[in-house]
Structure formats: structure tokens, C-alpha cells
Amino acid sequence: MNLKHYFSSVLLVCFFWSSSQEKEIDTVFIFDNQLKNSKKFQKIETLNKEDLLKNSTNLSEVLRFQSPVYIKENGRGMVSSPSFRGTTAQQTAFIWNGININSVFLGQGDVNNLNLLGYDQLEIKSGGGSVIYGSGAIGGTIHLNNDLSFNKGFKTSLFLEGGSFGTYNSFLKTSYSDEKLSVKVSGNFVKSENDYEVPEKDYLNLNGEYNNRTFNLGAAYKVDTNNTISWQTQFYDGVQHYPVRTEDYTKTKYFSNSFRSLVSWDYKNTKIQNSFKLAYLQDEFQYFDHIDQPKSSGGSSDVFLAKNDFNYIFNDKLGFNIIGEYQLNKGEGFQSGITSVQRNAGSAAGLVRWNPTPKLYFEGGIKKDFVEEIKTPMLFSLSGKLKVNSWYETVLNISKNFRYPSFNDLYWKPGGNLDLKSEISHQAELGNNFKYGDFKLNVTTYYISIENMIRWLPNSKGIWSPVNTNKVESYGIETQVDFEKNFRKNKTKFSLGYIFTHSQNQETNKILSYVPQHKIFGNAAYRFDVIELYIQGMYNGLTYTTEDEKLSSAIKSYFVANSGLNITLAKNYKLGFKVHNIFDEIYETTAFFPLPKRNYSANLLINF
After folding, report:
1. Environment class of 68 (CB within 10 Å of its CB; exposed 0-12, middle 13-18, buried 19+)
2. pLDDT of amino acid 13
3. What secondary structure does DSSP assign to 525-584, as a single string?
4. Radius of gyration of the chain (CA)
């Protein structure tokens, strides 16, 4: 937490404080005001704090067991990347309170360097979203949301957990709110020796320890009946020691630090809704190819962002939305050939929302990005929803999305390629939503075509360099059934999802690596009075790890299940016990990096 971070936050707050007037505010303030519109047309999985605590180890585990996303993890707690609908990690956008936070160096986010418990809500949206969320929103978006409540007084919660392999997790959150002011502060510390063993694979996770710390501060102030000022800041600091197979291997480690600060001024009346945001994002990383030696490579980046989201509501049937954004990206590398680079990027988008009848909804959008020295396409999105009757509705989404090259793609030396084109995708999906009593069923089919795929390949000099090479076609189906029922002291909740994905390189006619064709995930919970029992299951089909569909190198299919028990004591205390990998399955999501066999954890949650 250096002085630059504090000054950035203070300047953002002072700017807005001097620009606004007295007001009144909603009971709960959400920073990402676009996500609620997406829910009308796209299936979005929403996970609250109660859901997240069922997989409190890390964000990878949450996504693996509670979403359609495939997670490729280089061992428990290590480098981890997501895949939506057969796309790559660079084609997934991480959205922090409405702001795209993918790395300007890599063009993606590392799942395990995004602290799980620092967010109030996690939402997972499959499908394109570049018109709203920008570069990389091709396969899907993962939304890391904080909220601020009003008229709640003082509230505090403490979560403590201990588990196998010397794993400890602690989280403290406190908040205060009245009619005018809301403040929330939280901190999280995670530490693990992570020294698990898989004898059947002759594997011991040597040098696999990790630890990280997160601090969050959020505040909102009621100025008058129309204006809201809000602020969200996050500090993250993490250390990962990368696993080695034997003591003869050289041990390495990786440091990651990030700082994010966002201030929002929101104006709202019966006709106009406007949200103006200023944000500053900083990321720094250091890699040590020997844990006892100085760093061997690294880099730091700064993103300065201004964004305005203007909505005009003509009547209860018609509205317009104009979104403008400007970014200044700066990067400086160490031992990467990237000395000091920067680029300006801006965009303008317009959307129309039309609701001609209570049963029919339409939304159409266009967007143009302007990225310094990079050609970008005109983007569009078209959505329609028809409520056929009380138990069935159908949704159609068509969009064009993109990803522009990252700093590493362009400037890495040797190998960077300044002539790269942006990746472009065209996609369509047809959703079918059914409802009967307490049951809900969603069945969505989709098709994605991606051109100018950026891949790093050896050139004629033997140097690895990024090129626009592949055309990829992906199609599949996503289904999910949900059931929830409360009666007297009983509460039952159940969900089961099946995903079929066929993602193929059109030049080689081969299935893409690390894209399983089949995934099944399920969660069930039953609560009676003060006792809750839950179980989770996840099946992953055969997964190729090479581009030539080499069966001998593929990851075989596997099924992993977890179970837990929560007991509420004296209303404010909850004891929890979990068994991870109940059936002692031997499995891996990345070749040569097995994940733990059966292990255990216990936790205590106190609310006061």
C-alpha cells in the first residue's frame, strides 16, 4: 500500500465530492449496472457468499464445481485459467465491479490470483459481451462484484478455516450504514503448505506452498434524491511457489501484487440514469527462476480509465443507452524486452432497448473501439426474448466480439509481432427457459466462429512469435435444471448442469487442447432447522492436451465429489466440516499436475 495508491484513491474521491449535490439512494448499491440488463437475455449463474464458502479454497474450485466453466489448474492454488464454450483464457473477460481487469501483458486473468472472499457476489455469464465489456469478452465473462447496503447499522462477520496440507483461511468483514452513508471494510489471509501427495502417480507436491492477502474498502454516500457517490478499492498481494517433481529440480516462485480503485457518480431520475466512473488499476509481478536468487523477470502495468454510461428512458417500452470509455495503458517489463510502452484506447457504444408488449423484449447494440496502432472491427449485438406462456420463454442472441493483442503479443523481445490483427468472433445462441412449480430448466445451444486466432509458434529462426493463424469453430449445448423449496424449517436447493462442447481448429480439423467435450456439475443442499448438509459433484470427459488429439497424452475422464455439514449454534455461530474428493479420485486438469486426493477442512463463521 504505497503513497501512490493512497493519493490515487484520495484524488478520485475528492473529485466526485466537489462535483455533486445532496441526495437519496437505493437500499443496495451495485457498481455494475449493466449486468441486470444482460440477465433478461442470457443465462447468468449467480453465486452469493453462502455459495462461495462451500468452496472456500480458491476461485478455481468454485468455478469447477458450481459453473459450466472448464478450469485448467497447474496444481492446487497455482496458475489457473478458464475456458468458456471451447474458447481460450484470453477470450474470457474478468469484470471487477463493471471494469475489465484482464492483464495488459497477458490479455487474461489468473483465476487463483483473484482472491475469492474479497467479493460479495460472483456471477458467471456465458456468451459474447464485447459491446458492453470490451476486449476478450468472447467466450464469456466472470463478474467479481461488491455491493453496499443502507440502513443496516453495524454488522461484522469472521470466517476461520483450517484444512489438510497446512491450509489456513481467515476473513474478517465489518460494515456500517445508515440512511446517508455506507462503509464496508474487509480483509482476507490465506496460507497453505500445500504438500499433498498422490502415490499412484508417484507425485509429491514439492515447493507448492502459497499465501495471499487482500484488503477491500468500499463506501457510498447519499447526496440527494438523484445522486450517489461510491468508492471501491482493493489491495492484493500473493506469493506462489511453483511445484517441482523431485528435489533435484530448481525451485521457483512468483510474486503478484495488484491495486484497484474505482469511484462512481450515479445520477438517476424517472427519465435519465447516468453512471460516470474513474478507475486506476495497477498490477505488478515478479518471477524468480531460483527462489534464493533475485528476480529473473517481471513487469508492472498501470491503467487509467474513464467511463460514462448514459441511459435515457422515453417511456416504459423504449430506452436508449450510450456508453463511452477511455483508457491509458502503461507497461514496463524486466528481462522481457518490454522497456516502457503505452497505448491509448477508447470506445463508443450505443444500445436500444424495446419492450413492445409485456411478453416481448428486444435489445440491439453497436460499438466501435479505437485502439492506438491496432485496427479494430465494428461490433454489434442483437437480442430478443419471447414469453410464450407462463412456463416457457425463448431467447435469441447474435453478436460480433473481439480481442486485441496484448503487450506481450506486440512487444515481447525476441518474438513480439507488431503486425498482429485483432481476433474476431461471430456467434449465435438460442436459449429455452422452462418453469414448472419450483423447477427451472434452461437449454441453450450455441455456435461460435473465431478468425485471426493469435497463437505463439516458432518462426523460421526458431524463435517463438505470435501470429494470426487459426480459424476455430465451436458449437455445443448447455443445460441446467434448478430446484428450490422452503417449507417450515426445511430448505432444499438443487442444481444439475450438463455441457457439451465441440471446439475444432478448422485448418487441422482437430479438437482444441484442454477443451473437454463433456462436463457435468451438480450441487444439492438440504437444511432442517440449524443443520445443513450439502454435496457437490463434477464429471469431466476425456480432455486432449496436445493439438494432434494424441490419446496417450490425453487426460482421462474423472468424477470428483465433495460433501459438507454446517451446524448453526446460538444463531450467530456456524460450524462447518467438509470432505473434499470423497471417493479419493486421482485426477488432474493440467497434464503432470495431479490435484489432491481425499482431504478435509473445518471452519467457523461468526456473525455479530
Report:
1. buried
2. 42
3. EEEETTEEEEEEEEEE--B--STT--GGGSBPPEEEEEEEEEEEETTTEEEEEEEESTT-
4. 24
